[in-house]
Write a structure and sequence with these properties.
Its main location: membrane. By secondary structure, this protein is mainly beta. The chain has helices at about 70, 190-195, and strands at about 5-10, 30, 40, 55, 60-65, 80, 85-90, 100-105, 110, 125-130, 135, 150, 160, 175-180, 185, 200, 210. The chain has a single domain (about 1-220), classed as Ribonuclease Inhibitor (Leucine-rich repeat, LRR (right-handed beta-alpha superhelix)), CATH 3.80.10. The chain is globular, with a radius of gyration of 19 Å. Mean pLDDT is about 85; it is low at about 205-215.
Length: about 220
């Protein structure tokens, strides 16, 4: 009967290692977050081709993120690997027409650029890459993601200037924007902030006045 298992939630179970091989191709939800799991991810995870939610945050996992995750990424809605010890580049090659809404990689040791295949994630709402070692320029191309509401890039090695957007409605639904503690130079273009429509609060006592809410630490801007 276990071959028909579709939902498995074992968070805060204090496992030290993965308790089984993953052979349930019908599994759509797997939550092993807040355990004590150590070492690399088992290759058997790549057998879960119907997986929609993979939640492994707050463990002691290490190694690289398997390249085979690209084989299951077309079905994934949420991938949460936050607060582990993964290193290397982000290898995920997201295909077109994927379902991903939440990608959490905060609190690892990931390096290299932000993968351009995220451009294919048209349903992405939350992108949290904070507290890694990602080295890249500001990914202005993310402005094209129509559902993106949370963008967290804090505490990386992002650099260069933040250019002006040429889109009529960039980051249309963005509500949380955190690029603090990087190595950007110059300043954020005023035009970019003014386009953050979902962060805008209209003061009805002064109808021409709009206020914006975002998180930027000026101490890490140069110029």
């Amino acid at each position: 009967m276990d071959r028909y298992l579709s939902f498995l939630c074992l968070f805060v179970s204090l496992f030290l290692q993965f308790p089984f091989n993953f052979s349930w191709r019908s599994l759509t939800f797997l939550d092993l977050s807040y355990n004590l799991l150590e070492g690399p991810l088992p290759s058997s995870l790549c057998n879960l081709t119907n997986l929609e939610y993979l939640l492994l945050s707050n463990n002691k996992l290490s190694g690289t993120i398997p390249h085979c995750f690209g084989n299951i990424s077309s079905q994934l809605i949420a991938l949460d690997l936050r607060k582990n010890g993964f290193h290397g580049k982000i290898p995920l090659n997201f295909p077109e027409a994927n379902q991903l809404k939440n990608l959490g990689l905060n609190g690892n040791k990931l390096e290299g650029p932000i993968p351009k295949s995220l451009f294919n994630c048209k349903k992405l709402e939350i992108l949290d890459l904070g507290h890694n070692k990602i080295s890249d320029t500001f990914p202005m191309w993310l402005e094209a993601l129509p559902e993106l509401s949370v963008l967290i890039l804090t505490s990386n090695q992002l650099h260069g200037t933040i250019g002006i957007s040429y889109s009529k409605s960039p980051f249309l639904k963005l509500r949380i924007f955190d690029i603090s503690y990087n190595n950007f130079s110059g300043s954020i273009p005023a035009e970019m902030i003014e386009n953050f429509q979902s962060m805008k609060r209209i003061d009805h006592n002064h109808q021409a006045e709009a206020k914006y809410f975002y998180h930027v630490n000026d101490k890490r801007f140069r110029g």
